[in-house]
Structures are given as structure tokens and as C-alpha cells.
Amino acid sequence: MNETSLNLADELLVRDQLVQQLSEELYQLMVQHPELFVRFYQARKAEAANAEALKLLQAQVQQVEAQIAAYQEQILAYQQQMQNREAEMNSLKAQVIELSDRNEMLERVIQEMPEVYRQKFSERLSQVKLKIESLEKENAQLRAELRNLQTLLAAQARQQQQQGLPPLQPARVGLIPSFNQL
């Protein structure tokens, strides 16, 4: 055999002896101090339980982080909605101001309307009064002409009577209404 395999065999033998010696010492420790092994066993058991609890806590942390992310998304969505509503509210405020201004203008127009109607009515009434005055003058002139014609007809009728001719029958003329009573 060669030298490396002899070295390897020697090393294995030394190692086996060390393992044997450690096993014996461990056994003697266990016999002399059994409470250490109980505590060691309990510590290993607690370590395993702690590792399981740590896994559960890590899973809970992940769930909480997921919930936080969802809540942050909701908060962002609510903030966006709030900004949209504020913009809509500002738009509505502007419309209210515009409509209020328009309402004030219409109220002023409505308050001025009676005066405007009074002026228009006065203008139209003055035209009607001028027309009535014109018609009354024309009526007076026509009555004067009618009286002149009646006088003339009466004079002709007298002449014809004096001459012995039968009298002319004048056509019945109705009275022309007077507009003085308006």
C-alpha cells in the first residue's frame, strides 16, 4: 500500500477513537448530570417551537404588509376621489357665482321693466292721443261741413218752396260719434 492510504487509515483510526472517547464522555456526562440533557432537549424543543412561531410571525407580517399595501392603494384612490370632488365642487362654485350674477342682472332687469313698459306705453299712448286729436279735428271739420250743407240744403228747400217745387228729401245722416269723451 502506499503511504497516503496508510495515512488515511491512521487518520480514520484516530477519528474513530476520538468519536468513541467523546461518546463515552458524553454518556458519563449524561449519567452524572441528566438535568443538562433535559435542559438541552427542552432548549432544542423550544428552539423548534420558536422557529415555528417565527415562521407564523413572518407569515403574519407578510399578511399585514399586504393589508398595508391594499390600504395605501385605497387611500390613494380616496385621495384621487377627493381631488376629483374638490375640482367638481370648485366648478359648481364657479357656476353658482355665475348664476348668482346672472340672477342679479335679471332681477335688475325685472325691476326696470315696469319703467320700460311705462315708457313704451306712454309713447304708444301719445301716438294714440295724437291720432284721436287728429280724428276729433277731422270730426269737427266734417260736422262744420255737414252744418254748412244742411244750411245750404235748407236754403235750397226754402227757395224751391217759394218757387213752388216739391221739397227735396235729404238722406238721413246719422250722428257722427264724438271722441271728446275719451
Indicate the topology.
Elements lengths: L2 H30 L1 H130 L19
How would you summarize this macromolecular structure in one to three sentences?
The protein is mainly alpha-helical.
What would your notes on this structure say?
- With 182 residues, the chain is mostly helical.
- It has 2 helices and no strands.
- The protein is rod-shaped and about 195 Å long.
- The mean pLDDT is 86.
Can you count the beta strands?
0
What oligomeric assembly is this protein in?
single chain
Mean pLDDT: 86
Strand content: under 5%
SSE succession: HH
**Outline, from the CA principal axes?**
rod-shaped
Helix percent reads over 70%
Termini gap? 159 Å
Structural class computed from helices and strand pairing: mainly alpha
How many whole angstroms does the radius of gyration measure?
66 Å
Number of helices: 2
